[in-house]
Design brief:
With 102 residues, the protein is mainly alpha-helical. It has helices at residues 8-26, 36-39, 45-52, 56-65, 82-89, and strands at residues 42-44, 72-74, 77-81. It has a three-stranded antiparallel sheet with strand order 1-3-2.
């Protein structure tokens, strides 16, 4: 069935499901370390940036500066372990440049 064939209620339900799923992904907590399968999982730059609450561009800047050590690079995609993400979560964040006074 094509999505244009759906009634308005069905389309609204689909939109609500989409955003509810997106909200759950964004607001999830980090997995427990007891699960060895999760411990061995690799996360993309975007996934790691979402967990760290920074942009993927900022994460790439940190990689270039040598402050972040991804596990490996496949193609053009950096991959991170949960250990590295947890290390970054515990790091001290320094404030940015002071605002210019007028």
């Amino acid at each position: 069935m094509h999505k244009l064939d759906l009634g308005i209620d069905d389309r609204i339900d689909n939109v609500v499901k989409f955003y509810r799923t997106r909200y759950d992904i964004i607001n999830r907590e980090l997995p427990s370390m007891e699960d060895t399968e999760i411990k061995n999982r690799l996360y993309t730059t975007q996934q790691a940036a979402d967990m760290l609450d920074i942009t993927d561009g900022r994460l790439r800047q940190l990689i270039k500066a040598g402050k972040v050590k991804p596990d490996q690079k496949i193609g053009g995609i950096w991959l991170f372990t949960i250990d590295e993400i947890e290390r970054l979560l515990g790091r001290k964040r320094t404030p940015g440049r002071a605002k210019k006074q007028s």
